[in-house]
Amino acid sequence: MDRTRRTFLAGAVGLAALAAEGAYTASRAQAVSADKAKSAPDRPRAAREPFVVRSADGTMLAGEAQGDVQAPEILFIHGLRQSRLSWEKQFADPALGGFRLVGFDLRGHGDSDKPNTLDAYSDADRWADDIAAVIAGARLRRPVLVGWSLGGFVAGAYLRKYGGSGIAGINLVDAVTRLSPDLLTEEAATFTRTTTSHDLAERTAATADFLAACFHQPPSEAQMQRMLVVNGMTARAVNEGFVKTRTTDLEPVFKAYAGPILLTHGVHDRLVRVAMSERIKSVHPNSRLSLFSESGHSPFYEEPLRYGQELAAFAAAAGKG
C-alpha cells in the first residue's frame, strides 16, 4: 500500500467527526491559515449568502453568493465528485474581491438533490437547466462561467441549449469538452469503471485514489480528509449516468460562442490531457491557453495566487465586452 493510499484510509477514520458542524468549521479555518503562504494577504471576508433553487425537473440545488450584487459576476461550476467548497480559495482571494462570486453544488453532489435515475445525469439538457436555474435564482445579469473538469461539460451544455448571449466570458479549467479516449488519460478511464463499482470496497478505494489524482501538489492531510467527505457524498448514479450521455462533443458549441474564452490547464494533469484545451484554442479565435507548470488537475487550488489574478483580469475585460 503506497503512502497516498495510507493517508486517505487513515483520514477515513475521522469522517464521522468531520461531518459534525464544529469540526467542519475548525478544518475550514485551518485550511485558510495553511494556505496564506500561497495566497494574497488576508482581508475581511464578505458575508456568504446561501440560496436554494429548483431546476426545471424539480431538482433542488444549493448554493452560496458573495459580494456586491452590482459587481461583475463569476459563476463557478465544480468538477465530478466535488462541491462548491472547491472554490474556497477563490472566495477568500482579495484579487476577486471586486466581483460577485457564486458557487453551487451540482446535482448529485454536496447539499443538492441526488436523483437516482441515470437519465438525470446522462441528459445534457438537465445540466443546462441547472445553470439556467442558478443564473435566474441568484439574479445574475451577465456572468463569467468558470467550468472545472465536468464543469466544462456543464458550461457547454448550457451554451448548447440556451446560447451564450447572456454570458460575458468562459474560463475552462482542465475542462472536459469532448468525451474522447485520446483526450482523457487511461487513469481517467479506469476511474470511470472503479468509481461506479457496485462493490463498496472497490468504490471506496477508487474514490480516495481519484481525489489524489486531482493534484500534483497534494493538499494537507486535514484538507484531504475534508475533501474525501465531500467526494463520498456524491451519488453513484452521477458517474453511471454521465458516461451514458449522447452529447459527447461540445467543441462545436464553444467554437460558435462569440465571447472570450480563457483556457486554464495544469501541465501535470493525470485525468484530462492538455490536448483537450488545445483543441478549444484551435477552434476559437478569441481564446487564450494558460498552462500552470506546478499544477495537476486543480490549478485554481494548487496555484491560487496566479489563478486569481488571471481570472480577475479576464473577468474584468470580459465584462466590458
TrEMBL record:
Its domain of life reads Bacteria
Respond yes or no to whether keyword Signal is given for this record: yes
The entry's keywords: Hydrolase, Signal
Q: Which GO terms describe its cellular component?
A: membrane
Cleaved signal peptide residues: 1-19
AB hydrolase-1 domain boundaries: 74-304
Q: Which SUPFAM superfamilies match?
A: alpha/beta-Hydrolases
Q: What is this protein called?
A: Pimeloyl-ACP methyl ester carboxylesterase
Biological source species: Chelatococcus caeni
Its taxonomic placement starts with: Bacteria, Pseudomonadati, Pseudomonadota, Alphaproteobacteria, Hyphomicrobiales
